[in-house]
Predict the structure.
Amino acid sequence: MIWTTILVIVVGAILKFLTCPPSALVGWFLSKFELHPKLDSKDITVTINGNPLQAEEKDRFTNYFNEAQFLNRNPIFQGNEELYLNPDTEVIPFIINVKRRNKEINFFVYNDNKDDHIFIVKQQKKKVASYNLRSLYIQQFATSYRINETA
Protein backbone atom coordinates (compact mmCIF):
# COMPACT_ATOMS: atom_id res chain seq x y z
CA MET A 1 0.00 0.00 0.00
CA ILE A 2 2.80 2.42 0.87
CA TRP A 3 4.68 1.58 -2.33
CA THR A 4 1.58 2.23 -4.37
CA THR A 5 1.14 5.64 -2.73
CA ILE A 6 4.80 6.55 -3.30
CA LEU A 7 4.60 5.38 -6.93
CA VAL A 8 1.43 7.43 -7.54
CA ILE A 9 3.07 10.54 -6.01
CA VAL A 10 6.25 10.12 -8.09
CA VAL A 11 4.31 9.53 -11.32
CA GLY A 12 2.06 12.50 -10.49
CA ALA A 13 5.10 14.74 -9.90
CA ILE A 14 6.66 13.65 -13.20
CA LEU A 15 3.42 14.27 -15.11
CA LYS A 16 3.03 17.66 -13.42
CA PHE A 17 6.59 18.59 -14.43
CA LEU A 18 6.08 17.45 -18.03
CA THR A 19 2.76 19.24 -18.49
CA CYS A 20 3.84 22.46 -16.78
CA PRO A 21 7.65 22.86 -16.97
CA PRO A 22 9.41 25.76 -15.23
CA SER A 23 9.66 29.03 -17.15
CA ALA A 24 13.47 28.92 -17.18
CA LEU A 25 13.44 25.53 -18.90
CA VAL A 26 10.90 26.69 -21.47
CA GLY A 27 12.90 29.86 -22.15
CA TRP A 28 16.11 27.89 -22.62
CA PHE A 29 14.43 25.41 -24.97
CA LEU A 30 12.79 28.11 -27.10
CA SER A 31 16.01 30.14 -27.31
CA LYS A 32 17.57 27.23 -29.19
CA PHE A 33 15.17 27.80 -32.09
CA GLU A 34 14.64 31.57 -32.20
CA LEU A 35 15.47 33.34 -35.44
CA HIS A 36 16.41 36.71 -33.93
CA PRO A 37 18.39 35.97 -30.74
CA LYS A 38 19.48 38.46 -28.11
CA LEU A 39 23.20 39.10 -28.47
CA ASP A 40 25.81 39.75 -25.80
CA SER A 41 28.48 42.26 -26.85
CA LYS A 42 31.19 40.11 -25.23
CA ASP A 43 30.49 37.22 -27.61
CA ILE A 44 30.44 39.18 -30.87
CA THR A 45 32.54 41.19 -33.26
CA VAL A 46 30.90 43.77 -35.51
CA THR A 47 32.65 44.87 -38.69
CA ILE A 48 31.77 47.12 -41.57
CA ASN A 49 33.85 47.09 -44.72
CA GLY A 50 36.45 44.95 -42.90
CA ASN A 51 36.91 47.47 -40.07
CA PRO A 52 35.79 46.39 -36.57
CA LEU A 53 33.64 48.76 -34.54
CA GLN A 54 35.13 50.14 -31.35
CA ALA A 55 33.87 48.88 -27.99
CA GLU A 56 31.43 51.73 -27.33
CA GLU A 57 29.99 51.63 -30.86
CA LYS A 58 29.72 47.84 -30.70
CA ASP A 59 27.79 48.04 -27.40
CA ARG A 60 25.38 50.62 -28.84
CA PHE A 61 24.88 48.61 -32.03
CA THR A 62 24.27 45.42 -30.01
CA ASN A 63 21.65 47.17 -27.86
CA TYR A 64 19.91 48.53 -30.96
CA PHE A 65 19.97 45.07 -32.56
CA ASN A 66 18.49 43.46 -29.43
CA GLU A 67 15.73 46.08 -29.15
CA ALA A 68 14.73 45.92 -32.83
CA GLN A 69 11.24 44.70 -33.69
CA PHE A 70 10.95 41.50 -35.71
CA LEU A 71 8.75 42.07 -38.77
CA ASN A 72 8.73 38.95 -40.95
CA ARG A 73 10.78 36.08 -42.28
CA ASN A 74 11.75 36.06 -45.94
CA PRO A 75 11.47 32.73 -47.76
CA ILE A 76 14.72 31.34 -49.13
CA PHE A 77 14.39 28.56 -51.66
CA GLN A 78 17.01 25.86 -51.91
CA GLY A 79 19.76 26.92 -54.29
CA ASN A 80 19.16 30.67 -53.79
CA GLU A 81 21.22 30.98 -50.60
CA GLU A 82 24.12 32.64 -52.41
CA LEU A 83 21.81 35.41 -53.68
CA TYR A 84 21.04 36.34 -50.09
CA LEU A 85 24.60 36.02 -48.79
CA ASN A 86 26.06 38.13 -51.63
CA PRO A 87 23.23 40.32 -52.93
CA ASP A 88 23.67 42.58 -55.94
CA THR A 89 23.62 45.88 -54.03
CA GLU A 90 25.92 48.77 -53.30
CA VAL A 91 25.00 48.76 -49.59
CA ILE A 92 27.90 47.67 -47.40
CA PRO A 93 26.51 45.49 -44.60
CA PHE A 94 27.40 45.41 -40.94
CA ILE A 95 28.70 41.90 -40.29
CA ILE A 96 28.08 40.47 -36.83
CA ASN A 97 30.12 37.38 -36.00
CA VAL A 98 28.83 35.52 -32.94
CA LYS A 99 30.93 32.86 -31.25
CA ARG A 100 29.23 30.92 -28.45
CA ARG A 101 30.72 27.70 -27.18
CA ASN A 102 31.26 25.68 -30.36
CA LYS A 103 28.77 27.63 -32.51
CA GLU A 104 29.58 30.35 -34.98
CA ILE A 105 26.80 32.47 -36.46
CA ASN A 106 27.15 35.35 -38.93
CA PHE A 107 24.57 38.10 -39.33
CA PHE A 108 24.68 40.43 -42.33
CA VAL A 109 22.78 43.64 -41.54
CA TYR A 110 21.72 45.66 -44.60
CA ASN A 111 20.22 49.13 -44.39
CA ASP A 112 19.62 50.99 -47.64
CA ASN A 113 17.73 53.95 -46.06
CA LYS A 114 14.96 53.57 -48.66
CA ASP A 115 12.57 51.56 -46.50
CA ASP A 116 11.77 51.65 -42.84
CA HIS A 117 13.12 48.16 -42.28
CA ILE A 118 16.49 46.47 -41.84
CA PHE A 119 17.28 43.39 -43.93
CA ILE A 120 19.08 40.63 -41.97
CA VAL A 121 20.70 37.47 -43.35
CA LYS A 122 21.64 34.88 -40.74
CA GLN A 123 24.17 32.19 -41.64
CA GLN A 124 24.87 29.25 -39.35
CA LYS A 125 27.08 26.60 -40.93
CA LYS A 126 25.29 25.90 -44.23
CA LYS A 127 21.88 27.14 -43.06
CA VAL A 128 20.80 30.55 -44.31
CA ALA A 129 17.77 32.47 -43.04
CA SER A 130 16.57 35.94 -43.91
CA TYR A 131 14.24 38.28 -42.05
CA ASN A 132 13.34 41.93 -41.62
CA LEU A 133 13.57 44.13 -38.55
CA ARG A 134 12.32 47.60 -37.78
CA SER A 135 14.72 49.80 -35.87
CA LEU A 136 14.98 53.52 -36.24
CA TYR A 137 18.11 53.45 -34.07
CA ILE A 138 19.98 51.05 -36.35
CA GLN A 139 19.04 53.18 -39.36
CA GLN A 140 20.31 56.33 -37.65
CA PHE A 141 23.45 54.51 -36.46
CA ALA A 142 24.21 53.22 -39.96
CA THR A 143 23.63 56.64 -41.51
CA SER A 144 25.81 58.45 -38.96
CA TYR A 145 28.51 55.79 -39.21
CA ARG A 146 28.66 56.09 -43.01
CA ILE A 147 28.79 59.89 -42.76
CA ASN A 148 31.67 59.64 -40.27
CA GLU A 149 33.49 57.13 -42.50
CA THR A 150 33.33 59.39 -45.54
CA ALA A 151 34.44 62.49 -43.61
Notes: Helices lie at 2-19, 23-31, 55-67, 81-85, 136-150. The chain is about 40% helix and 30% strand.
